[in-house]
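2024-03-11 09:14:02 DEBUG pipeline.ingest accepted 1 chain
2024-03-11 09:14:02 DEBUG pipeline.ingest length=324
2024-03-11 09:14:03 DEBUG pipeline.predict start
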Amino acid sequence: MPDLADPRPGDPASVGEYVVAGRLGEGGQGIVYLATSPNGTKVALKLLRADLAGDTDASERFVREVAMARRVAPFCTAQVIGTGLFGGRPYIVSEYIDGPTLADVVRTQGPRSGTSLHRLAIGTITALVAIHQAGIVHRDFKPSNVVLASDGPRVIDFGIARALDLSSTLTGAAIGTPSYMAPEQLTEASPGPKSDMFAWACTLVFAASGQAPFGQDSLPAVVNRILHNEPDVGSIEDPGLRALVRDCLAKDPARRPAAGEALMRLLGHAPAAQPPGLLQQGSAAAASGPMPGTSGPVRGAPGPVYGAYPPPPATHGPHYHCLL
């Protein structure tokens, strides 16, 4: 289990029906607590910063937007269980994944390579297929949003960036992490699924080298490199994976493969020279059949905004593609 810090003065004893056990971490968006549901299940509960929440209307827009994340199929992701307001501040309850982040593992154990890197690539791209099929763009895919659980990598915090963009009173602020942002995120207001593919490739380069591909120094320097420089992908030894990562780092989003196409290439079921976008995110299920463990594409509108959603099913189907 990641280090659990004791609650601090001012931390809530409970949020809604969830009892707070301690702090898992704190970041730019808010505080993440380990909490317990009424049935004893451990969950991760993120309480948004008050200044990001905005007024009541903005907070309610945030909650409605995040509620859409429950549509994401449970393939290599941490499922959203519930969302609502606590003292006027939005909170998000998600499946608790016991494990360190990719950022922590690379920092303490060193870069990934060989089979470990390839399985990481397959697991994380599978998560993006599920996220994009649900009509969601992650917008903040990065090593600290990949948790390495015992059954493989899980992607977390999907859908939050767009909700912040729609509801935050901090207008003009970039939503995302600069070192992993696609060129269009620096110039356009509405990044698409191909922006996630750029961030995914940056994350793979980090996993293989231990370094952010465009650096982590001053913001102007990082932005300049993203817009004009080609990163070194030589740390990725496998030629097929290296070629895919290079394609995903194209400056023009139209030249990047979609997540479904990238997954097929990783599994050896599609040639590297396929036309860009052959498997569009909204129709990936029709193009390649349903994802493992499902009977068809993800459908359904979000349920009630407040309170908990029905828990994920006990069996999510095969997880062989997520294993490290």
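2024-03-11 09:14:41 DEBUG pipeline.report The two ends are 17 Å apart (CA to CA).
2024-03-11 09:14:41 DEBUG pipeline.predict end
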